[in-house]
Specification:
It is built from 13 helices and ten strands. An eight-stranded parallel sheet has the order 1-2-3-6-7-8-9-10. It has a two-stranded antiparallel sheet with strand order 4-5. Helix 9 links the parallel strand 8 and strand 9. The chain folds into two domains: 34 residues, no CATH class; 335 residues, TIM Barrel (Alpha-Beta Barrel).
């Protein structure tokens, strides 16, 4: 679409200046690109149920449902504006497709994701689904937008401050319950304690010390009292998991950007064995590398796509095509395969996206596909694969 055509689209929508019309039309063009869906290839066993965990044993809580839904896109993540109606349609499609595991956060759209999830969940029986949210940031009213480095488009009128204290943790949970409109959370994650968090950098250890004194014992107490079923860390790097395992007893950790068909060696060699020793399970966040494995022009929340990852994407896609499937289907089933993993929570913004993800979990992938990936060194030789 040319610049002149973009401006004309904005004018047709009644937007004032040429510059604002151009900005809006560019957003529409981006959304048109994002709406393109990688169709599921292969034989979909429509009658199959989504995978579940055996929850009858084990010291630590495991959610029953292994296929979930991440809430980042519901907070207008990646600077993509979605209407309440669009997100609610996606959420209803997720429920109708059998998804019963929902993950959100106060940070996603600064309450926007939690409120939108509540539009669905407050009308459901509480015992029928698993719900997780996060602590570590408290929201405060503000009409000023966040700095542009954060990827929330048209977020709610709040800013945030970090608070990993015991009182801040309890307040955060109470605020989340009110925003969502439910009586309880099943899982609570201590959020974004990571050197990858640009707000913190190497100072993340100071916030970690606050959590050691506050959030960790408070969540342990709430679990022991039966207020929540489990707690852990929700992070994009494993640093805090390594640091905290010897001084705390988490149940489950949400590890985003750390286990995918493209990048999984560190998790297999170090992170998963450490968690297995303690019976702690993993929820895999961003199993599609922030949408890259579904065809998006971004990798792990960034527009900078590493050359190595692009090459692996191309190679695995070619093998998948030869076996009659697609890379998204392979990626979702690969991420769900390890015994350490108790769930995967790919995100979605539209009903079509969530329906395609569910369909991918019901495709029978030939064993020869996984064998060829290992033979060609495209996945680790010891990587678990679907039976």
């Amino acid at each position: 679409m040319t610049r002149r055509e973009l401006i004309r689209v904005g004018a047709a929508l009644g937007i004032g200046t040429a510059a604002s019309r151009l900005a809006l039309a560019k957003e529409l063009e981006i959304r048109k690109t994002n709406d393109q869906i990688m169709k599921t290839r292969g034989l979909v066993e429509a009658g199959d149920e989504l995978p579940k965990n055996d929850t009858s044993s084990g010291k630590h809580y495991r959610p029953e449902h292994r296929m979930g839904l991440g809430g980042l896109a519901a907070g207008n993540g990646f600077n993509t504006i979605s209407s309440d109606e669009e997100i609610l349609g996606m959420l209803h499609a997720a429920w109708d497709s059998g998804i019963r595991h929902f993950d959100t956060s106060p940070f996603y759209g600064l309450s926007l994701s939690e409120r939108r999830f509540g539009d669905l969940l407050r009308n459901k029986k509480r015992e029928d689904y698993v719900l997780s949210s996060k602590v570590g940031r408290l929201l405060t009213p503000s009409a000023e937008p966040l700095p542009k480095r954060w990827h929330w488009a048209d977020h709610s009128p709040f800013h945030y401050r970090y608070d990993y204290s015991a009182s801040g943790t309890r307040r955060s949970i109470e605020d989340s319950l009110q925003r969502i409109g439910v009586s309880s959370l099943d899982i609570v994650y201590i959020h974004d304690l990571s050197p990858q968090n640009s707000d913190m950098g190497e100072e993340w250890t100071k916030y970690y010390d606050d959590a050691v004194r506050g959030a960790i014992p408070e969540l342990t107490k709430m679990r022991d009292e039966g207020i929540i079923k489990g707690w852990g860390f929700g992070v994009n790097t494993p640093d805090v998991v390594y640091k905290a395992l010897d001084i705390s007893d988490p149940d489950i950790c949400l590890l985003a950007l750390q286990y995918s068909i493209l990048d999984h060696e560190k998790a297999l060699e170090k992170t998963f064995p450490l968690l297995d020793e303690r019976g702690v399970s993993v929820v895999v966040g961003a199993p599609l590398n922030g949408g890259f494995l579904a065809g998006r022009n971004r990798f792990n929340y960034s527009g900078d796509i590493p050359t190595e990852m692009q090459k692996k994407f191309t190679s695995i896609s070619a093998v998948a095509k030869d076996h009659g499937i697609d890379i998204k289907t392979a990626a979702l089933q690969f991420a769900e395969a390890p015994s350490t993993v108790s769930a995967i929570i790919p995100g979605a913004r539209t009903k079509e996206q969530v329906e395609e993800n569910v369909a991918s979990m019901k495709v029978q992938i030939p064993a020869a596909f996984w064998g060829e990936l290992k033979e060609k060194g495209l996945i680790a030789a010891k990587a678990p694969v679907p039976a």
